[in-house]
Task: structure prediction
Amino acid sequence: MKKISLFVFFLFFVCFIKAQNTTSKKDARKDNTNHPIISDDVILKYKRQLVGGFKLINDGYGGFVEYGKSSSTTRSLLFQFDISERKHAKEEKLQNNYLPTSPLIYGKLNFFYPVKLGVQKLFVFGNKAPKNGVCISGHIGGGISLALLRPYMIQINRGNNTYDYINYNSADSIYYLDDQQAQYIVGGPSFTEGWNRLKLVPGLYVKPSLRFDYGKYSDVVSGLEVGINAEYYSKKIPQMIRIKQHQYFLGIYAAIIFGKRM
Result:
C-alpha cells in the first residue's frame, strides 16, 4: 500500500506541475508544430481515440489499450482490453546462494493473470482549456475477466545431480512440504515453465475511475487515471498453499495514459 500511495502522489504532483506550466496564448502563437493547440473557450471535440496505459495495482501491475467513440462533447463509449498480474501479500522471494537458479516463492501455487475485455462509459466533468490545462472525466463500466492460472513450478534436487520441476498441487509435492525435505528445493521456475499447463477461470469485473488529461494539444491524450477494480470468478483462485483462497478481488490502481484523438 505504501508503494501505491507514493505512486499516486507522484502522478498527482506531475499533473499539477503540467497544469501550472500550460502554454499561454503568446507561446501558442509561436508554436510551429503540426499539433492543434487548445485555445480559450474551445470545447475538446473528437470522433475516435486510441489510448494505452501502464498501471500499478495495490497487488500487482498491468497494462491496457482502449478504443473510444464519442457520442457528444461530454460522452464517449470506450472498449478496453486489459491484462495484469496479481500477487499475494504473503509472497516472499528466496534466493539460492549456492546455485544459479531462479528465486523461489515458497508455497506459491499459481501465477495469476487476469485478462479483461469490457466497455466503459466516459463522462466529461470539466473540459480542457489553457486556463486550467486539465480535462477531468469519470469512467464506469465492466465486462468479462478471464483468470489465466500458470502453475508455479518449483525446482527440486532428486539426488545424483538430477533436477526436476514439480508443482505444489501435484501428489509428489507433499513430500517436499515437510520442513525436513524442503532442503531439496533449489529454486523457482524460469519464465518458460508452466505455460503448457495453463488453466482458465471465467469471471466478471466492474471498474469506476477518474482520468486527468493534461495534454497540451487537442489531438494528444496524456495524463493519469486512478480507480477501483472489482473482480469475481466462477471458483476460488488458488494462489498460495495453507491460506484461504478467494473468488472476489478488490483493488485500487494508478495508471499513466497516452494516446491520440482523431
Summary: Residues 117 and 219 are 25 Å apart (CA to CA). Residues 12-32, 38-42 have pLDDT under 50 and may be disordered. The helical segments are 2-20, 25-30, 173-176.
